Amino acid sequence: MTSGHNGSGVDGNAYIDVTDLAHRTPGWLNDAISAWSLYGLSLFAVLMLVAWWGARRTGSPSAVTALAVPLITLAGFGADLLLKLVFREDRPCQSLHVAVLETCPAPGDWSFPSNHAAIASAAAVALLFVSRRLGAVAVVAAVLMAASRVWVGVHYPHDVLAGFAVGALVAYICGRAVKRRQSALADRLGQGRLRPLLITA
C-alpha cells in the first residue's frame, strides 16, 4: 500500500494533547465517547425518520425535503470521499505512533477529511431545512461526533473541521435547491406511487 501524506505538521501537537488527555480520563467516560464515535451516526438516521414522520403527518411540502435528507447526506459523504482520494493523508495514529482508544485504521484508509464529521454535519444541516428543533439537536450531535473522532485518536483536528465544513456546505447547497422546489415536487410526487410517503392516508 502506497504511503500517504503526513498531516502532523498542521496540528499534530494539538492531536497529541487530546490523546494524552484521553488517557488521563476515567474509563467509563472514554467508553461512552468510543461508543458514540462508533455508533453515534445511527442517531442521525433516527432524527431523519422523526423529521419525515412529522412532515408527513401534517401533509406539509417539507415532507419532500425530509425525504431528500438521506440523499443530501449521501451527497456530503460522496464529496468528502472524493477529497480523501485526492489528499491521501495518513491517519495520525499511523504517523505519530501514539496509543489511541480506537483501533487505528489500516494504511490506505485515509484521514483527511473525516467521513464521520461530513456525514454528521450534512445530516444536521439538511435536517435544519425540515425542522429547526430537530436540526439544532443534530447540529449539537454533529459537533460531538466530530470531536469524538479526535478524542479516540483516528483523526487530526483539521480532518474533522474540514469534514464538517464539506458536509455542511454540500448539504446547504442541496437543501436550498430542494427547499425552493419542494411545493412543486410535492404536487408532482403526490400524484404517483410516492404519495404515501408524503401525506397520511
TrEMBL record:
Q: What is its main location?
A: membrane
Q: Which GO terms describe its cellular component?
A: plasma membrane
* Top-level taxon of the source organism: Bacteria
Q: Does the keyword Oxidoreductase apply?
A: no
Q: Which InterPro entries match?
A: PAP2/HPO, PAP2/HPO_sf
- Spell out where the chain crosses the membrane: 36-55, 67-87, 136-154, 160-178
Q: What is its subcellular localisation?
A: Cell membrane
Q: How does it sit in the membrane?
A: Multi-pass membrane protein
Q: What Gene Ontology molecular-function terms does this entry list?
A: hydrolase activity
This one is known as Membrane protein
- Which species does this protein come from? Streptomyces roseus
